[in-house]
Structure formats: structure tokens, C-alpha cells
Design brief:
The chain has five helices and five strands, in the order αββαββαβαα. It is an alpha/beta fold. It folds into two domains: 30 residues; 91 residues, 2-Layer Sandwich (Transcription Regulator spoIIAA), CATH 3.30.750.24. Helix 4 packs across helix 5.
């Protein structure tokens, strides 16, 4: 009889683990895609559609690689496909711009999406958006 209780507990434990695993996989967001390099005369980074806290590490890698690997003085970020952008990624873009300026380089923003334009404007960075959009 004791064996039966143990096996019932084991079965319950396995089924609970399976249901917890199923719940866990539902709540974990899809991994954000890394920014993609685009073809251009300038060193270029095509920003991914979703720039949120989940994708900030990938964005940082892409921006760091662009800054470190390019001998050119200008960088172009393509914001045309951005559908979502949150403050951590905006902060990272500002930090990248600052690092580029300190290295004697210039950042421009090609075709920022309406979402990206609105997000920058909403947090008081219209002047930075204008600066990036007019830089070439």
C-alpha cells in the first residue's frame, strides 16, 4: 500500500511539473531578433521591429559591433521597421550616439517609423530625432 502512495505522489509530481512547464512556456516571450546589417555605403544597422527590454542585449551587441568594427566616420541606423520601442532601447541608442560622438563619429537615422518618431517625441527627444534624421 505504501508503494502505491509513493507512485501516486510521483505521478502527481510529474503531472504538476508538466503543467508548470506548459505554463512557463506560454509566459516566456519569443526571443527578440538581433538587428540586421543592411546594404549601404555607410556602416548600417537595420533595427528590429521590436525594441523592448527583451531585445536590449541584442541591440547593444549590434551597436557595439558597428562602433568597434567600422573605420568610417558615419553610421546609419534604419528605423523603418520599428513597431515597438521602449525606454531602455531609446537609452541605449542615446548612449551609442554619445559613444560615437566621443569617437569622432556621427549617427544618422534613416526612415524612422511613425512609432519610433512618436516614442522619441513623447519623451522629449524630438531634437535628437531631428539631429539624427538630418545627419548624413
Amino acid at each position: 500500500m505504501a508503494t502505491k502512495k509513493t507512485s501516486n505522489k510521483a505521478a502527481k509530481s510529474k503531472s504538476t511539473a508538466k503543467s508548470k512547464g506548459a505554463q512557463k512556456s506560454k509566459s516566456v516571450p519569443e526571443k527578440a531578433s538581433a538587428p540586421k546589417a543592411s546594404e549601404s555605403k555607410l556602416p548600417n544597422l537595420k533595427l528590429s521591429p521590436s525594441l523592448d527590454i527583451v531585445s536590449v542585449a541584442d541591440l547593444k551587441k549590434g551597436l557595439s559591433s558597428l562602433l568597434e568594427s567600422s573605420p568610417l566616420d558615419n553610421f546609419e541606423l534604419d528605423g523603418s521597421e520599428v513597431e515597438k520601442i521602449t525606454t531602455p532601447c531609446i537609452q541605449l541608442l542615446i548612449s551609442f550616439d554619445k559613444a560615437a560622438v566621443e569617437a569622432g563619429k556621427k549617427v544618422s537615422l534613416k526612415a524612422p517609423s511613425e512609432v519610433m518618431q512618436r516614442a522619441l517625441s513623447d519623451i522629449g527627444l524630438q531634437n535628437k530625432l531631428d539631429e539624427w534624421s538630418n545627419a548624413k
